[in-house]
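can u do me a favor
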């Protein structure tokens, strides 16, 4: 549900297009499928696909876990927070360091 909340937030801020990078190939496949998902997790898939309809130039792509340190860092961070938190343009230093690491690792792996 965090993905849906993030997509809705991006739409509200009009920060489009949105690029979603996930380390689960099956989730990427289900979200990108043109037909409705009838799998057990279909409800969750459709909940994510719904706001994506408003983001015509947006995409959901696969990235290996090594390129996804930001997601894991944020997941650990939010465990101890009781409210929604967002940063625009610049985040805390620990987060910006993870962004740099992800960017360096992913740029190396795509070359």
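np, heres the sequence
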């Amino acid at each position: 549900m965090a993905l849906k909340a993030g997509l809705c937030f991006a739409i509200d801020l009009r920060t489009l297009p949105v690029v979603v990078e996930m380390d689960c190939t099956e989730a990427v496949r289900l979200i990108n499928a043109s037909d409705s998902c009838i799998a057990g997790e279909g409800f969750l898939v459709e909940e994510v696909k719904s706001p994506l309809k408003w983001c015509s130039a947006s995409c959901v792509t696969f990235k290996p876990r090594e390129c996804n340190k930001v997601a894991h860092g944020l997941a650990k961070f939010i465990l101890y927070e009781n409210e929604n938190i967002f940063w625009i343009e610049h985040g805390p230093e620990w987060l910006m360091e993870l962004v740099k690491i992800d960017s360096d690792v992913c740029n190396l792996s795509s070359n």
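The helical segments are 2-13, 25-32, 42-52, 69-78, 93-110. hope that helps!!
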